[in-house]
């Protein structure tokens, strides 16, 4: 905790303990700031280094050296003196009240920890909320047995679990190949990989190849992909996908996945499957930044919304900065460097270091960041998901919480719905507990396509706290001042 | 540019909330050509995100005649706008937690009865429990208005818009009014996108921005911009039909047909009206949650999935401004509903149309004149 008598609990709160959050917290605390690192999980690492301290997968070659790099970030955090609160869910970041004494607007963080909610007052907050899988809406994606490759990878990291029975992986992007490779190392069964990377993406990506050839990912990625291609059935040019609960001929159908139907070169094929792992890239997890009021923009290359940040990760909201994939996808190593840069800027803004010191200290991190981002444009372009998988057909469910189909969204557009926020009012889509994580990008793209305008024009959901659900009992028990209560009682 | 493509409107309505849309509808029903200018999109602010209470219960005495007349329109809302607006009438209840509170509501009913209004009744503990089985044991009785209910705000406002358009009204969305001036019996209204519109009559239904319109004609009003907060739970099994409030503290509590429970009470967040933005104040939301914790023990484990606030105008005396401008002819105000204007939407649009087309209304609107704020 910071100096006694201060209204601030900490100088800096870092939300998320993936590579960006770990690096940011360690650096800021090592320079003397009082720092608290808040994270939902029981152990640090985020999703990319999930369970790095305690994974049951002890054979290092299964998860690979890139995963084990995460462990190297933990020592500096420990040594830095930062306070680490695992098992802590942040559900709100806001500056609702003016301080009567000095007119400032301190940042208040709403969080739940050990089953109790509380508010934390800080000078600066660094959001390091990472990425989440891009929604992959296909017919039948809500069936038990269908899950995201990223979710499956979390099960591997945390519990050493691999799918049993017939397993099909489908989609595109580096994580799909990495998971296939990890499953191979673990001896898991994979019946086929259905590659949905559009053929024309190669043509678009080719001019960007020289950059990628200098990328640190190139060698590793190529070796991994070749390994997988040598050992597994890889079916390319897949242009449509459907998950079904019945086998061919209509048998089965107990409401769980039985087969995967795909189209290749205009012909439909069917594979029996007990597990279907879908993946076509990751997008920034911007819910907290969005609910905090941070401005965001549509990134055409990554085809996603990303909060607007400057070169130091500062957002449009004073005192709130962003580091890592939550500000735009760059990968784990880039996130780590961005975390350090963001921490330096926060220290500068708090008056802990001067501008010159900030800029000098930043130089090696910025160089490392540039290196880590080399070749990213090539990957983004090559793995842009095909329109058919981003803008699904009418009968496909888009919003799983409220069971809204793409057809219903199109119908709402015909009735005058101009963007995702109106779609909430028309259809309730995006108003379930996931707060748009599973439908937001798709709803944006469906409305944009239907209106024949850019996604930038139709906008994105205005998200609302609590960004993660909390119970009424927790909320009711938040510490309150007498003034809070006086405001409510009528007499 | 000048809007020349369509015939000149007879009336320009500034503001595409429920009150603007309702005025547009009632004027259109009488063959008046209306143009609605909305700075964002219809139902973007208070009209689209309020609690949806359709309530006569507990209103300021001055509002009661209007509210009763509006209620009659709500009960025939489908005839008015060709959509039921999600309106359901299961009554509204104001719970008394103590004998003293019960006395307060008894006194109120006596006042209303003396004025000839009988829609509010006091009920005892037994009837309260039969109407609201989930209510906490300590509640001793309640005030009830059985004809009240709730509707879906966005859908309602959109239905008014749709019907008004069907009757010939035009809507121009996405340009805020920047200038309002009257010359030779004609108003000129300019918007931020550079457009200019002209009409003999203007209606100011600009909600939380209405003071800026009034200021253009030398009629400053002490309008406060507020952000009343609401929160909603994940679905729970259906357990309550009426909308419930409280006598001693602020609450609005209702369950939707889909099982989600909406909790409000006019607690305020922070409104940033120039950015169309609100910020929630969770220490206040928490007080609201505490009220529910006390009154509905079954809700303690419910999950709050979202909270929000709309941007709304509040007047110092908590009642709206309705009626002609005090400084300019052919300008009519309809704003400042102080976080309880939704139920009044259907009738105030009709009143405004009456004033414009007939020069008077049969409802008592004197308490709402804008001149009451003049020093």
UniProtKB/TrEMBL annotation, chain A:
SUPFAM superfamilies: FAD/NAD(P)-binding domain
Alphabetized GO MF terms: oxidoreductase activity
Record-given protein name: NADPH-dependent 2,4-dienoyl-CoA reductase, sulfur reductase
Keyword Oxidoreductase: yes
Domain BFD-like [2Fe-2S]-binding stretches: 397-448
InterPro entries: BFD-like_2Fe2S-bd_dom (IPR007419), BFD-like_2Fe2S-bd_dom_sf (IPR041854), FAD/NAD-bd_sf (IPR036188), FAD/NAD-binding_dom (IPR023753), Metab_Enz_Cyan_OpOx_G3PDH (IPR051691), Opine_Oxase_asu/HCN_bsu (IPR017224)
Pfam families: Fer2_BFD, Pyr_redox_2
Species for this entry: Azospirillum oryzae
Record key words, sorted: Oxidoreductase
Matches recorded under PANTHER family: ANAEROBIC GLYCEROL-3-PHOSPHATE DEHYDROGENASE SUBUNIT B (PTHR42949:SF3)
Domain FAD/NAD(P)-binding: 10-339
UniProtKB/TrEMBL annotation, chain B:
PANTHER family referenced in this protein's UniProt entry, alphabetically: FAD-DEPENDENT OXIDOREDUCTASE DOMAIN-CONTAINING PROTEIN 1, SARCOSINE DEHYDROGENASE-RELATED
The species this protein was found in: Azospirillum oryzae
Positions of the FAD dependent oxidoreductase domain: 10-355
InterPro entries: FAD-dep_OxRdtase, FAD/NAD-bd_sf
GO molecular function: oxidoreductase activity
One Pfam family per UniProt: DAO
Keyword Cell inner membrane: no
UniProt-recorded name of the protein: Sarcosine oxidase subunit beta
GO cellular component terms given for this protein: cytoplasm
UniProt keywords, alphabetically: Oxidoreductase
SUPFAM superfamilies on file: FAD/NAD(P)-binding domain (SSF51905)
Extent of the signal sequence: none
Keyword Oxidoreductase included in the entry's annotation: yes
